[in-house]
Each structure stands twice: as C-alpha cells, then as structure tokens.
Amino acid sequence: MENHKRIEIGEGEVEKIIEALNRYHGIDFSGYSRASFTRRIQRIADKDANGTFDTLLHRVSENKDYFYKFLKEITVNVTEMFRDPSFFNSVRKNVLPELSRQQSLQIWHAACSTGEEVYSLAVLLHEASLLERSTIRGTDLNPEVLLTAKQGVYPHRNFQEYGQNYERSGGKVSLSEYYEASYGNSIFKSFLKDKMTFSEHNLVTDGSFNKFNLIMCRNVLIYFQKPLQAHVVHLFKNSLVTGGFLCLGSKESLLFSDDRLAFEVVDAKEKIYRKI
After folding, report:
1. Least packed by Cβ within 10 Å: which of 59, 92, 177, 216?
2. Do both 136 and 268 map to the same domain?
3. Nearest C-alpha neighbor of 212 from the set 235, 234, 245
4. What is the spatial distance between Cα 196 and Cα 139, in angstroms, rounded to a whole number?
5. Which residues span the domain enclosing 22?
C-alpha cells in the first residue's frame, strides 16, 4: 500500500483555505476561531490522502461535490434531540407561557444543522398548544444538512437516548407518539413538519429576514471570534420583537456583547434572554 506524506496544516494553509472558500463559494470563515478551524482542516487532510496541500486546495475550490463534503465536516453538526434536557425544561417553564400571549408566533432556529433540535422545539410547542399558531424557520449555511432536517428522518438507534432526554425535559407522553418507525429509521409525523420551513442562511453575511418571537442558536457562537460573535448577536437583536426571547448554548453568553443591555436575563444557567 502506498504511503502518503501527511499534509501539515498551519496558519498559512488555513488562510489559503479561507480565501478559497470566500472567492469560489462566497462563504466567509474569516471570523471563525482559528484553533477550531485548523483542527478540523487538519482532520480532513489526514483522512484525504491526496499527498499535497495544493491538491486539497484545488478540490475545495473547483470540485462542487467535494466542497459540500468539506463544508459538512468543517462546520459543527453535532446535535441531538432535547440536547441539554434542563434547557428545554426551562423553555417549557419560562418561555412558552409568555409566548402563549401572542396570537401568532414566528420562530427562528439559526444554524439548525440536521434539525433534531427544531423537532424538539416543535414537540414542546405542541404540548403547550402553541404549534398551530407557530411558524418555525430552520436555517443553516449547508444545504446538505438542511435536506436531512426537511426530511425529518433519523436513525432509530438514537431514539432510546432521545426518549430519555425528552423525559428529563418534562415530556408529557412518550416520544414515540411523534414519529413512525420504518426500516431502521424514525420519521417525524407530518403535523410537526407542516409548521417548519428550512432555507440557507449565512450568519456571517446574510441579514435579518423577519421579526421573531423566539430565536434559538445554541453552541455556535463558541466557534466564532469575538467580533463575529458581536455581529451575530446584533443580528439577533434586530431580528427579535420587543419581548422576544433569545436562547444560546451552555458555554455562550451576552456578558461581553455591546448589545447586552438590550436584553434581560431569563435563565442565567440555561442562557435564555429576553429583549427589552
């Protein structure tokens, strides 16, 4: 078997990749955390035994199929249903009762990845009798993960853990009431899907497209450098109605944001905020 020399990814290689992604695909990763970005590119380079960095760069730039594969690995797509059950329990108790005062609800799940948390939220809305008056917009910059989210089909092997998460989040029934099993997969029922739309949106370059009562964007800002974090928080502030809620990830905060004074803390532990 032929041995390939390892492609070493350093600062110079990272900058060339970022420049190529922007030039050929219009996606700007310059505000992403360099340490995390470098690790991910190195992992891709180690898997693809191409021999030279120039070969890797050419494939990223010119090969559309390879670019989508690269994009899926370079972006963070770690997600699960009812991830951090205590967070979803807090949403049940602290957010949904306030949203119930509204006649219609516009909800944005930004950087939704493959959509498991979008379906989790839809279940909560249904159990609070709010789903019928809700429109949920799931967005991501990667069209491949959006296709998975739109289909709502996931490996059944994950659903024992998902069911346990659901119970810990304060679930009312059995999670199995919301999906049908088929050939090793679980398919969410259409009454959940009917309230969702999925579309491409880039938090770095795209602007606000509606006024929302609730925005969820969990465990994404941690991969951004401080200026890009500030940019995204400002985008969310401008996209919320007064009294609207913003939900971030467990390691994220508005503490260092210039827009922090536009929000009040609803749940400090679970990183839930409300625009004032």
Report:
1. 177
2. yes
3. 245
4. 11
5. 11-74
